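*** Backbone structure tokens ***
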Amino acid sequence: MPQLPRHIFLSVVCLVACPAVSARAQETMTLPNVVHVLGLENVKRNAKGSLIVEAGTVRFAAGAATAAVPIASIQDVFTGDDSRRAIGGTVGTLSMFAPYGSGRFLSLFRKKIDVLTLEYRDSSGALHGVVFTLPDGQAAVAKKHLVARGARASIPVEEEEAQQQSKDKKEKKP
């Protein structure tokens, strides 16, 4: 039985594997409970909605307001972690006036969040930025999906994951 040359064999393997890879790249990812901090024209600040990463675009939908950014135009993706008051809004503000500083004590309780920042260029070449807050642990997942679909990132995903793991280990030490 004749043996196939190596380059033909590798070509056949690539042809068989490519549809599986492209099908996985076309999967849609939806992240709920995302807050648009600023940067999108048609969406109000602090609007709560869903971040949808689909074929070629990142879309934020908050009720009737939606905005999309082409993934190919994304110049950089940044992630970070932060915290915000667990008791916010009117109740959080009014609790500050509670007697003997108890309201200030309530403001010390914080909830962890992730921050996702996208830098992109519009059709005329102008640079824009969009900032989102996500539930804890979701920014890295979003960045991975974006980079897998063609977005650029100055800090590799693997490097950020290693930094986060070392940070988590330091926080867990007594």
